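Case study 2.
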Amino acid sequence: MSKPLLVVLAGRPGTGKTTLGRRLAAELRAAYLRIDAIEAAVVRCRLAEHPVGPVGYVVAHELAAATLAVGTSVVIDAVNPVPEARSGWRTVAEGARLVVLQTTLSDIEEHRRRVSARRPDLAGSAVPSWDQVVNRDYAAWDESRDGPRHIIDMLDTEQGVAAALRHIRLAK
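Prediction:
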């Protein structure tokens, strides 16, 4: 039996992580874990208020590790804005194949348009404004610290999905 795959998506809000994550999970027949969904459930249960801090990542790490342990691949949809968020996935991936994809949009005006047009799709969640997206702490990626990743431009969704699948197939 081949090792399961852990695909971790990272990137600023509005860069296509959720679109890409859903497509990859369907294509790979993998579990799909979205940090926003975990955080929305935590808020609905009144266990925390936004921003919930690391709890979404901690829960996702445990769910991903348990899912990988039974041989099922996992796609993670998370901003992963800081080194601490990024490093945890390497530990979770022990015994699995890890592929990290950072989504971007090469057209800043399209990014602004997508962020401005977004509406919450989860009860108990909120979507950030453009100002919140650009002013949010997002540490520049450092491969020596954060590990390797592949950059996926999601300006054209179909091209972005195809590029992501090429990187995943190379990891197999």
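The chain has one domain: 9-164.
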